[in-house]
Amino acid sequence: MPSLTRSKPRREALDWKSARERLARSLQDDSQIDPEQRDRILTERARTLARKSTTLATTSTTRSAQEVELVQFRWAREQYAVAAEFVHLVIKPCDLTRLPGAPTHLRGVTNLRGEILPVFDLREWFEVDRVPRSDTSRWLVLGADLPELCLLTDEIDEIFALDPRTLHRAESDSRHGHDLVQGVTSDARTVLDGAAILAHPELVIGDEPNARPEVVS
After folding, report:
1. Amino acid 78: pLDDT
2. Domain coordinates of the chain in residue numbers?
3. All residues at 6 or more sequence positions from 5 whose CB lies less than 8 Å from its CB, including other chains
4. pTM listed for this prediction
5. At CB < 8 A and 24+ separation, what contacts does 46-52 make?
6. Helices (DSSP H) in the chain: which residue ranges?
7. Which CATH architecture has domain 16-52+67-203?
8. Please, which residues bridge with residue 184 across strands?
9. pLDDT along the chain (217 residues), means of 10
10. Model pLDDT, residue 42
11. What is the CB-side half-sphere exposure of residue 216 using CA atoms within 13 A?
């Protein structure tokens, strides 16, 4: 993978005081979790992939030891995927608090079970058209051991199995998110690197990684 280091000027600090005040007025509790069966199944499978047997529609009846599960989603008409091991939850878009001074790809922050998480929209990075939010829109809650950020998607399609060794190298281009791409499948699905997303310097908020504002009670 290319180096994630970027020689860009440091942005001015986000206005956390304003964000805390707005969170206290507007954010709600766990009612934001998606109750629909489809999203519950995706979430459960993403969190227990090491223990569950698969019933996915793959070309082989037996999964090889090298295969991993990926959550497939859409931005506009384009298909993307990220390893299920990084997906903690799939939720419907919910209350969002804007942050004054934030870059355009940081849509705001949300309250997930008392944790303040940033919500990112990376469609511009991948030169994908933004489409209006619809009933199919979902947020992927990504993280390593704990939820760290939300990634806006236009639709969640499925979970599928893939041997990473079959990925094709993505062509290098000027797209800002190219260093987040692990590879491309034979049927043109772009697989994102979950670890690279979580480590990317432009996808963390605050002065230090994992910094979180306090919710004003």
Report:
1. 92
2. 16-52+67-203
3. 201
4. 0.69
5. 46/71, 46/84, 46/85, 46/87, 46/88, 46/90, 46/159, 47/87, 47/88, 49/84, 49/85
6. 16-26, 37-47, 194-199
7. Beta Barrel (2.40)
8. 168, 190
9. 37 53 49 52 53 36 73 93 94 89 91 90 90 88 94 93 91 74 93 95 65 37
10. 59
11. 11
